[in-house]
Amino acid sequence: MFEPNAAENYHLRMHRARSVILTDEELVEIRAAQRTFEGAYIRTALGQFSFALVILKIFTSEFYSIGALFALYGTGILITSLLRRQQGNKQFFSETGEDGLNQKKFRTSGNVVVVLTALSVAAYATLLILTIKLGD
Questions:
Q1: For residues 93 and 98, what is the distance between their CA atoms, to the nearest angstrom?
Q2: What dihedral do alpha carbons 100, 102, 106, 112 form, nearest 10°?
Q3: Could you give the 3-state DSSP secondary structure of residue 76?
Q4: End-to-end CA separation in angstroms for the chain
Q5: What's the half-sphere exposure (Cβ side, CA atoms, 13 Å) at 12?
Q6: Integer Cα distance of 63 and 121 in angstroms
Q7: 3 vs 74 pLDDT, higher one
C-alpha cells in the first residue's frame, strides 16, 4: 500500500504481485492474516469512533474534549492498521532487491506494537489529565 510500483516489486513464485494466481492454501493464509491483523485494528478503531460519538451526543459540552480524544485515538489506530497492512504485504510476497534477486524476509509486528503502545499510553495519560480537569 502507498508504495510506488509495489505490484512490480513484490513477487510470488516468480510472478509479479498483480498477476499471480494464488492457490487455495495461499488464499486461506492471506484471508486469515487479514482477518486477524487488519480486521482487529479496524474493529478497534470503529469501537473508538462509536464511543467518541456516544460521549459527544449524550454528555454535556464539558466532555467534548474526552470525545475528541477517543476520536483521535481511533484515527491513530486506523493509521496503525495501514502500517500493519503494509508490513503484512511484505511478509507474504518476496521483494526484488537491488541485485535483482528475490528476497523473502519475515518480520515480526514489533514496530506496530511499539507504535500502538506509545499511542495508547499517550491517549490514556491525556484521558487521565482531562478527567482530573473535569473537577476544576
A1: 16
A2: 50
A3: helix
A4: 46
A5: 17
A6: 20
A7: 74
Give me the amino acid identity at 86: Q
Burial of 128 per CB tally in 10 Å (0-12, 13-18, 19+) = exposed
pLDDT per position as a tens digit, 89-118: 666 655 555 666 656 555 667 788 898 999
Q: Which residues contact 107 (CB under 8 A, 6 or more apart)?
A: 87, 90, 91
What type of residue is 69? L
Residue range 15-37: mean pLDDT, rounded: 68
Q: Between 99 and 13, whose confidence is greater?
A: 99
Look over the chain and give the mean of its residue pLDDT values, rounded to a whole number. Answer: 78
Q: 50 has which bridge partners?
A: none
Give the residues across from 44 on adjacent strands: none
- Determine the Cα–Cα distance for residues 110 and 87; give it in Å rounded to an integer: 11
Distances (CA, A) of 1 to 7, 86, 90, 102, 123: 9, 6, 10, 19, 27
- pTM (2 d.p.): 0.70
Q: Which helix (H) or strand (E) holds 38?
A: none
Exposed e or buried b per residue across 73-93, where buried means at least 16 C-beta atoms within 10 angstroms of its C-beta: bbebbbebbebbbebbbbeeb
